[in-house]
Amino acid sequence: MTRTGNYNILPFESARHKRLHRSSRLAFTLQFCLVFMALALLVPESASGQKGARTFSVLSKTWQVGPNPNALAVADLNGDGLPDIVTADRGELHDPREERPANDELSILIAENPFDYTRRHPSLKTGTAPYALAIANVDGLKWPDIIAVNFLASRARHISVFLNLKDEDVFTPLEFRVPDTGLEYHRHHDGEGVPLFAIPGLTSVIVRDLNNDGLRDLLAAGWSSDIILFMAGHQETVFAEPHYISVSGAPRALALSDLDGDGIQDLAVTLYASAEIALFRGTGNGGFTPAARFKTRGELPTTVVVQDMNNDGLPDIVTSHAHADDTIMIFYGDAPFSYSVSQELMLGKNRDVLEHEIRDIAVADLDADGRMDIVAACPASGNVVVLFNTSSDAIPRQQYRTETYHFEQGRPRALQIADLDNDGRMDIAVALWGTNSVGLMRNVR
Ligand SMILES: [Ca+2]
Ligand SMILES: [Ca+2]
Ligand SMILES: [Ca+2]
Ligand SMILES: [Ca+2]
After folding, report:
1. 329: CA distance to ligand 3 center in Å?
2. Average pLDDT over residues 421-435
3. How confident is the model over 4-22, as a mean pLDDT?
C-alpha cells in the first residue's frame, strides 16, 4: 500500500491538492489532446440570463434538516401526489475514524401543499455518516421505501433501510452489515499506518430490479475497498447477502443505463483515485462484466450521469471533478462502450483556481425544448449553476447558456431535479451544507 497524498482523501473540503497536481494535469491534458478529439468551452453567462428572463426563482424560505446534508432525494412518500424530500445528514468528517462530528440521521420533509413542507419528527436514525440515498419500493407494500448507505458504518451498520408503512406514518428500520471477509482497504493511512477510513466506505447507491425477478436489487460503490457491491432483492429479508465486483481505482459514483442498446442495464462508475470512468456490461441476471475504461481528462472525478446530451440516440456520459477543477466533462457515445469525443465545460474563469467545487450534478430538460440541460451544486461559490443546451444539431460540441443562482451562506452540496408542484415544469431541490437546510428553485419559465 503506497500513500498517494492528501488529495485522495475523500470527505475533506480542501483545495490544497490542486497545486500539487498541476503538472500531472498538464500531462493529462496533452495526452488527451492527442488521443481524443477534445473540445473545450468556456460557458458564457447569458446576456439575457439576468433579471426578468431567468428560468428559476429561488424561494426565500428554506427548510431545516439535520447537520451537513450530503445527499437529497425526492419522492412522494405518502401517496398524496406531492413529492416529498429526504436528506442524508452526514455531519462532518474531521477525523473519519471518530463517530463524531459525523452524524447519523435522515430528515424527511413532507409536502403539505406545493412548496410548503413540514419536517417529520423524529428523524430516521441510520448508521454513522449516511452518504448516499435511494428511494425505491423494496417490500410488498406499495409505498416507496428509503435506503441509505453509511460511509463510516460504525458497529457494522453499513446500509439502513426504512420500510414505509404509510398508513401508520411509520418507517420500520432494517440494518444490513457488509461482511468484511475478503474486503481489503485500499485508501489512505495516517502517520502510524492506521487506515483513515472504514471499509468498504460506501459512497453511492442505486436500487433497481437488475435480474428481472420483480424484486429490486441494490448496487453500491465501496470506495475504500475497490468494490461494487450487489445485493439481490429477497422476498423475506429484502436484500440477500452481498456479492462483490472488483473495481480498482476507488469507485465513487454509479449510474445505470443501457449503454449498448441491448435492453439490459449497464453500469458507469467514476474512479476517484485513478481518474477514470469504468463501464460494465450488464448480464441481465445482476452481473456486470468490464467493458471499457477511459480517463476523465481531469483529476478526482466525483459524479457520473448517463444521458443523451446531443440527441443522436446514443447515451453520453457526464462527469465532474469537485477537488481538482471547475469543469464538467461530457463524453459522447459513438458506438457501444466507445467515447472517443469529449467536451469540457468550464464553470470558472481560471482553470487553476478552484472557485466553485462542483459537488453534484443532475441532468434533465429543464426548459422543455427537447435538449438535456445540466445543473451543478457548487458549495465553494454558493452557487447552483444551470447550463441550458442551446444547440440545434447533434454535433458533439454542444452549446450552453448559463444561469447562476446564489445561495447566501448555504453551500449547495447535493441536488435533485423534480417537478415539486406538479405544474409540468421541472424544479430543483438543493441540500445546503452550510445552513443545514433545503432550498428550492421553482421553475417559473
Ligand atoms: Ca445493455
Ligand atoms: Ca449522444
Ligand atoms: Ca433544455
Ligand atoms: Ca414545477
Report:
1. 18
2. 97
3. 37
pLDDT at 174 over 80: yes
Q: How far is the CA of 57 from the centre of ligand 4 (A)?
A: 11
Q: What's residue 19's pLDDT?
A: 37
Q: Where are the beta strands (DSSP E) in 286-359?
A: 288-295, 301-307, 316-321, 327-332, 341-346
User: What strands lie across the sheet with 202-208, from one edge to the other?
Assistant: 202-208, 217-222, 227-231, 243-246
Segment 207-221 shows an average pLDDT of: 97
> Three-state SS for 33?
helix
Find the 259 Cα to ligand 2 centroid distance in Å: 11
Q: Does residue 37 or residue 375 have the better pLDDT?
A: 375
For the CA of 396, the nearest ligand:
2
Where residue 35 falls (left for φ over 0; alpha for ψ -120 to 50; beta otherwise) is: alpha
DSSP conformation class of 189:
B
Residue 83: which of 59, 106, 60, 117 has the closest Cα? 117
Instruction: Transcribe 401-421 into DSSP letters.
Output: EEEEEE-TTT-EEEEEEE-TT
User: How far, in Å, CA of 286 to CA of 213, rounded?
Assistant: 10
Of all ligands present, the nearest one to the C-alpha of 440 is 4
Q: Decide: 354 and 20 in contact? Cβ < 8 Å.
A: no
What is the per-residue pLDDT for 124? 97
Instruction: Give strand ranges (E) for 186-340.
Output: 202-208, 217-222, 227-231, 233-234, 238-239, 243-246, 251-257, 266-271, 276-282, 288-295, 301-307, 316-321, 327-332
Q: In angstroms, what is the C-alpha Rg of the chain?
A: 21
What sign results for the dihedral spanned by CA atoms 256, 261, 262, 268?
negative
Question: How far is residue 222's CA from residue 247's CA, in Å, rounded to a whole number?
Answer: 9
Helix (H, G, I), strand (E, B) or coil at 64: strand
Q: Ligand 3 mean position to 52 CA, how many Å? A: 19
How many other C-beta atoms lie within 10 A of the C-beta of residue 33?
Answer: 12
Tell me what pLDDT residue 52 has. 52
CB atoms within 10 A of CB 1: 11
End-to-end CA distance of the chain: 53
